[in-house]
Amino acid sequence: MEIRPIRTDADHKQAIREIERLWNAPKGSREADIVDVLTALVEVYEKARWPIKEADPVDILKYAIDEMGRTQAELAQIVGSRSRASEILARKRALTIEKIDKISNAWGIPRGLLAIPYALDGREVA
After folding, report:
1. CA–CA gap between residue 77 and residue 99 (Å, rounded)
2. Residue 46 and residue 55 in contact, taking contact as beta carbons nearer than 8 Å
3. How far apart, in Å, do the first and last CA atoms of the chain sit?
4. Angle CA(57)–CA(110)–CA(64) in degrees, nearest 5?
5. What pTM was computed for the model?
6. CB contact at 8 A, 57 and 116
7. DSSP label at 55?
8. How do the domains of the chain map onto residue ranges?
9. Cross-strand partners of 72
10. Which of 42, 22, 17, 24 is nearest to 34 (CA)?
11. Angle at Cα 52 formed by Cα 46 and Cα 55, nearest 5°?
12. CA 19 to chain centre
């Protein structure tokens, strides 16, 4: 395969196929170098083609509730009350380090994702 910029979905598919074909190449070989270069090109293309909006902690909690089978009632048990859970989801109350730790332990959400600054009633929360 000739290595060149990935500009189309067809180029992307071809690069992925080549990466898969060469994936187990011995470290330090020409084939392993090709995998490294193609992987970098694929990452650049995917980031431009399918950008991912950074989710904030409230979005992550809503995703856990909507898509991962969690409930607002479970969140209420973790954070102490139904009203507190509602306030967090409505962006009226910030997550504390203690709450982040409890949610992370209970739901397996990485602490780093829950500790990202986010808007709270129109102001940034650090």
Report:
1. 11
2. no
3. 48
4. 55
5. 0.57
6. yes
7. P
8. 9-49, 57-125
9. none
10. 22
11. 160
12. 23
Domain 57-125 sits in CATH at 1.10.260.40
* pLDDT one-digit tens code per residue, 10-63: 999 999 999 999 999 999 999 999 999 999 999 999 888 887 677 899 999 999
Amino acid (1-letter code) at residue 61? L
How far apart CA 114 and CA 111 sit, in angstroms, is 5
Cα distance between residue 8 and residue 111, in whole Å: 37
Structural contact between residues 86 and 72, judged by C-beta atoms closer than 8 angstroms: yes
Residues 53-90 have pLDDT tens digits of 778 999 999 999 998 899 999 999 999 999 999 999 99
Contact 6, 12 (CB under 8 A): yes
Q: Identify residue 53 by its one-letter amino acid code.
A: K
